[in-house]
Amino acid sequence: MTHSKLLMAGVGLAFALSSASPLSAHETTSQTETMHRFSDKSVVANAQATLTRMEHGIYMTVDTVELTPGDAVTAWFVVFNKPKNCSGGECGEDDIFNLDANGKFIENADGSPPMNMDGIEAASISLHRADGLIIDTDGAANFRGHLPIGDTTEAVFGPGLMDAHSAEVHAVIRTHQKPVPGKANEMVSSMNGGCSEDWPNEPCEDLQFAVFKPAM
User: Is residue 35 part of a domain?
Assistant: First the structure.
C-alpha cells in the first residue's frame, strides 16, 4: 500500500470472514484469524490473532513473527462499531479517509490525507492502543490487549467500543523502529511516539493486520 505509514490508512483490508451463528449479548466467543502484511496483503506464516468477545468488552492476543529485533512496536484495536454503515459493505480505508475514484488518497496541501468525517461518524469508528513492546532477538512477539465497552483511556479518537459482539475489529501491528534515547516508553505507548509529527510520520509504519468480522 502506498500510504501505509499512518495507522488508520490500511485498517480496512479485510480478508477472513467468520461464520459463527448469531449470538446472545451475554455469550463469550473467540475468533482466530491469520495475520497479513500491509506491504502486499500476503499471509504471515506462523502468525495469528485471536479476539475474544465478552459481555463487557473484548480481549485480543496477537502472536506474530518477522519483526525487527530491538524495535519498538505497538498493537492497536481499530473498532468499527456500526460495520453495516461501512462504504460498499466493507469496512476499510475509504471509511476513514477521502479517496478518489482510483482508491488513492485525496491529499491536503501538505501531502497528508484528509479524514472522512462522514464515514467515521457513520461507522462509529474508534482507534485504541492495545499493547506495546520492544521486540526480542528472534523477531517474534506476543501482544495482549483488553478493551472494555465505553473505555476511551487509550483512545486516539472515537467513542470506544459500543457492543462487543456487533463491532468489526481490526488488529494492527505498527513499528516505531529503534528506540530513541529517552523516548522508549513513549514509543511503545503512543501512535507516533519517536516518529515525525508530520505526515507520513516516518519512520513509523504499519506492518501487519488481522480482521475480525462480527458474528451478528
Answer: yes
Phi, psi of 100 (to 5 degrees): -90, -175
> Residue 204 is placed in which grid cell?
513509523
Residue 39 included in any domain: yes
**CA–CA dist 144, 63 (Å, integer):** 9
* Separation CA 11–CA 200 (nearest Å): 16
Domain span holding position 163: 7-212
Helix or strand (DSSP H, E) at 128: strand 125-134
Identify the CA nearest to 176 among candidates 200, 208, 205: 205
In degrees and rounded to multiples of 5, residue 165 shows phi and psi of: -90, -30
Residue 68 has pLDDT above 80, yes or no: yes
Q: What CATH number has the domain bearing residue 133? A: 2.60.40
Residue 136 has pLDDT above 60, yes or no: yes
Strand 125-134 vs strand 57-64: parallel, antiparallel, or unpaired?
unpaired
Residues 6+ apart with CB under 8 A from 102: none
Structure confidence at residue 18 as a pLDDT band (50, 70, 90) = very low
Residue 2 lies in a domain: no
Q: What is the pTM of this model?
A: 0.85
Q: Is residue 1 part of a domain?
A: no
Measured distance CA(9)–CA(11) in Å, rounded: 6
